Amino acid sequence: MTKCFGKLYELRGVTYACSDTSNLREDFNNMIENIALVVNAVLQEGTTGAAPAIPAGAAAALAVGLAALGSGYAERGIGAAAVGAIAEDDSMFGRGLILTVLPETLVILALVVVFILG
Fold first, then answer.
1. What angle is formed at CA 7 by the lines to CA 6 and CA 11, rounded to 5 degrees?
2. Are 18 and 8 in contact (CB under 8 A)?
3. Where does this protein chiefly localize (predicted)?
């Protein structure tokens, strides 16, 4: 087996994602040349004939749904802590309310972006 750095994947006797340290400069140059070839091919192809993977409405729904899911996950811990703090000291109500509502701004922002983009 050759000396490798980074992650090493071996499948059916073939080694992937491995670079011998003696050929590091050559491997890096080949990688840069391949990136240039891929970018050139993509730019020459253009966007004609390519359909989006999902419709715009589905993408917007996915964005808002994921924002709401993340917000709910954040509010789970914040709400519990806020209720505990308010139970101990009534003056913490304002801070608890602000911290509980703060993650919801993410969902509001997602809805605004959906309406702006169309």
1. 140
2. yes
3. membrane
Q: What is the pLDDT along the chain (118 residues), one digit of tens a residue?
A: 455 554 445 555 655 555 555 665 666 666 677 777 777 776 776 656 666 677 888 888 888 888 889 888 888 888 889 999 999 999 999 999 999 898 888 888 888 888 887 6
Q: Residue 100 burial (CB < 10 Å; 0-12/13-18/19+)?
A: middle
- Nearest-angstrom CA–CA distance, 109 and 103: 10
Structure tokens at 48: 């004609």
Phi, psi of 46 (to 5 degrees): 75, -165
Closest CA to 100 of 73, 81, 79, 76: 79
Helix (H, G, I), strand (E, B) or coil at 113: helix
Domain boundaries in the chain? 9-45, 56-117
